[in-house]
Amino acid sequence: MNRPLRSGIVGAAVLVLSALATPTVAGAAPAKPTVSPSTTAGNAAPTILARADIVFLGGDPSHPSGPLEVKVVNEGGAAAKGFFVLRLPQDADLTAGGDCRAGDGAPRTWVCGGAELPAGGDRTYRLTVTSSAAQPVFGVTGWGSVAGQDATGRADRPTEFRINWPDRTTLRLRATAGPVVDGAATMRLRVTNTGTFDIGGYSLNVATPDGVRVTAPGCSDSGRMNGVGCEILRERRLAGGATDSFDVRVAATGGTKSVRLWLAPTNRYTNADTSVTLRLTGGGAGGGTTTTAPPADPTTPATTAPATAPATPAPKATELPRTGTTTIVYGLIGVSLLTLGGGLLLLRRRLQRG
Question: What are the pLDDT digits (tens) for 251-266?
Fold first, then answer.
């Protein structure tokens, strides 16, 4: 009797749970997708199409940029003006090209182009996309889109394209400093890409103490050094395993100075040998006087003259003749003694036999 009762209770519970679950499933059903006006029955298909290639950002590592190429095609049977609508993700901005204007009411949206295209003709627009992130960004990917549009505002469906920010990598810094001569010194730098892929550029920071100023190459006007040094942008492609060698010239006054150099942004590089501290020595005298490099012995100043200078060099001491028995004489005496001893031994044996 208990078994039928338990079976009935279980069956009732299953029915109640099924009834409760039914509204939840119905509520989670996706909303009906909206249909683009260009695909609605009765509307003609758009004839202006647009496609974009992938964008690789490089150059200034703090705000890298890269080219964006958009191809606009007129697939209609008559000539028409071809526009395209460009949308960019957050932390990306349009900085040049394409005859673009901001879209009406839509953030990070531009309407570009507008050239007359013959039937079946096309035109490629070249634009520049730049990272607008407040802090340097590495190893991320964003997505933008383009959509062709005619003069009446009828637009094609958006087509996405990818934007790649620079990846993290390894970059090694080596540097040496020459002596300060006439108030100037040269630091020789070697920056090696120890990573496995090419990089589109890097930044070298030089912290200049009082009395030291970078004269070449030119310093960036980015303001990221806050007036306490010089940022040198090396906006050139550096292949994996390649080395970028160049000189940094400084004006230096006021004695020995310590200058620190490091690769930036620091969060891009995964290795430790990205910073070097150099000592500029030699006095840094100006006014046309060439300073003298410090001597090998630091206890003797380079400018100290001897107390008295001899008029003539001191004569060499006369070597005395050697006297006494030489090694050869000792050798002859030894050979004679050995011969005499051998003769005496032979004579003794003959006497014993006789």
Answer: 999 899 999 999 999 9
Residue type, 328: I
Using omega within 30 degrees of 0 as the cis cutoff, is the peptide bond preceding 46 cis?
no
CB-based contact 57:131 (threshold 8 Å) = yes
**pLDDT, tens only, 163-194:** 999 999 999 999 999 999 999 999 999 999 99
44-164 has CATH 2.60.40.3670 classification: yes
Tell me, what DSSP letter sits at residue 347?
Answer: H
pTM (two decimals): 0.62
Write out the residue limits of the CATH 2.60.40.290 domain(s) in the chain.
Answer: 171-280
In the numeric block, which tokens belong to residue 217? 């190459």
Q: Tokens 């673009």 correspond to what residue?
A: 100
- What CATH architecture applies to the domain 171-280? Sandwich (2.60)
Whole-angstrom CA distances from 287 to 181, 182, 184, 255 are 11, 7, 12, 15
